[in-house]
Amino acid sequence: MIGTPQKPFDTYKWRWLSVQPSEGLLQVPVFLGVLRALNLFEGNAFSSPELKNALAVVQEETQSSVTLARDEARNLFRNSGQYWRGTGLLAPDEGRIHLTPFGQQVAKGQVTKGEFVAVMIQQTVLPNPWTYKQQEIAKWRAANLEIRPFKLILEIIEELGRQHGGASSAFLNNRELVKVVIPLAGIKATAAEIARHVFLYRNDRLDVSGWPNCAPMDNDKRLAQEFLLFLSNFGILRFEKTGLKDDWKFYLDELFDVDAVTAPIDHSIFGNTSSAVRAVEEIRHSPLPSIVERQRTASTVLVRSGQSKFRNKIFKAYSQKCCLTGDIISDVLEAAHIVPVKHGGADDPNNGFCLRVDIHRLYDSGNLRISPSGVIYYSDAMLASRNYAPLPKRIAIPSFVNPANLKWREDYY
Fold first, then answer.
1. Is 115 in contact with 281 (CB distance < 8 Å)?
2. Whether 143 and 277 share a structural domain
3. Contact at 8 Å (CB) between 394 and 376?
4. Are 310 and 263 found together in one domain?
5. Based on the domain organization, do 268 and 372 belong to the same domain?
6. Run of H or E residues at 284
7. Is residue 353 part of a domain?
């Protein structure tokens, strides 16, 4: 067992984005809705009335818990712009909107949600070069310390599941993250070592009362939990509300070898344009995006109830036929929500398509997008695939489908 860890430097903690956390900004529709609003007004001032009006629409249509449309003196990006800068989407310019090439790709749907999350898992490092001050970065450098937090979290949960109790143990909560994971990460303990100590702590066999407090300020626990919330919001982890917020369990429903699919960082989204493009291409041609999508599917299946009733309604409405491929074999057909249930979508034909299983997966991952006019946009990966070359470029949207649902999906998901 590792002895009592020591802080690598006096201010050591985990912080990814803003120093003033607004967890609601990490909800997928809000996060992507704001990004797409920024893309519409590239070059404008953050305080421009045009952007404010666009953000008011995002706030209303996503039912955001965060006030997005603020007055000029305290616009959203004065304190919270780091949510998009720290993820490599918004360049660190002052005063004017300037999305990075990576940000423009994500905003336009050219990078799927699975690819985006895969990039975050591989590329997110502490200290974050675009959200940390130079004096903070210097302390990390002096300690010869760099942490890839998402990769480490997933490795730890994977170890807990494989070595310490199976699927029921494959979770992490914020209390364990703050009290065990972060202190041990500061002394460069391995994921296996950290998982073992989490298991002991979870079973009251490890006393951490003498360990350093790596979340001393009021917001520090919230800042730490943002890592877990991001993975949950984007469907990699499934969380269960159990008791206090620090005790919410974030589960990894399908175990995989994280280390085998997250290669060392050769190119960075925080570098120049060429480096950022290479970083995305490396991820795109790795196994990680497909694994991310399997996680999203697994977590969705486990938490959805009422799916059979919705499926029956959709099958009846579409005469049991995939609206893209025309397939009629029920074993390969599924009911797909346009607006996801967790974001307020209804189990009603006006909010659904009948899709073949693989088409459904590609639709949910963002590899194909169906516009309100029926025009279909395909990802580069699908366009390069012979298997999907025969798919139509446009479909007739049934009259019973609500156009507002299609527009919401286009703008926020």
1. no
2. yes
3. yes
4. no
5. no
6. helix 273-284
7. yes
Tokens of 148: 């890839």
How many Cα atoms are found within 13 Å in the side-chain-facing hemisphere of 67? 6
pTM of the model: 0.88
Domain final residue, candidates 250, 265, 292: 292
CA neighbor of 293 nearest in space, from 155, 104, 121, 107? 121
Residue 266 falls inside a structural domain: yes
* Residue 413 CA, distance from chain mean position: 12
- Total number of domains constituting the chain: 2
Q: Is residue 76 part of a domain?
A: no
Rounded to the nearest 10°, the torsion over CA 379, 153, 249, 10 is: -130
pLDDT band at residue 248, thresholds of 50, 70 and 90?
very high
Pairing verdict, β 249-251 and 333-337: unpaired
Tokens (6 digits) for 364:
């949910």
pLDDT tens-digit map of 160-181 = 999 998 989 999 999 999 999 9
Helix and strand numbers, DSSP H then E, in the chain: 19, 7
- Give the distance from CA 358 to its chain's centroid: 22
379: Cα separation from own chain's centroid: 19
Give Cα 410 distance to the centre of its chain.
Answer: 17
Nearest-angstrom CA–CA distance, 61 and 314: 25
Structural domain boundaries, residue 320: 304-412
Q: Which two tokens stand for residue 82?
A: 């780091």
If phi > 0 it is left, if psi is from -120 to 50 it is alpha, else beta; for residue 14 that is beta
pLDDT at 361 over 70: yes
Q: Which residues lie across from 356 on neighbouring strands?
A: 333
The answer on 277 and 155 residing in a single domain is yes
Residue 169 lies in a domain: yes
Band the pLDDT of 262: cuts 50, 70, 90.
low
Q: Is 337 helix (H, G, I), strand (E, B) or coil?
A: strand
280 plus 312 within the same structural domain: no
Cα distances from 184 to residues 63, 162, 193, 318, 360, in angstroms, run 39, 20, 9, 54, 41
Q: Which of 243, 269, 292 is the last residue of a domain?
A: 292
Q: With H, G, I as helix, E, B as strand and everything else as coil, classify residue 194.
A: helix
DSSP state string for 92-131: --SSB--B-HHHHHHHTTSS-HHHHHHHHHHH--BS-TTT
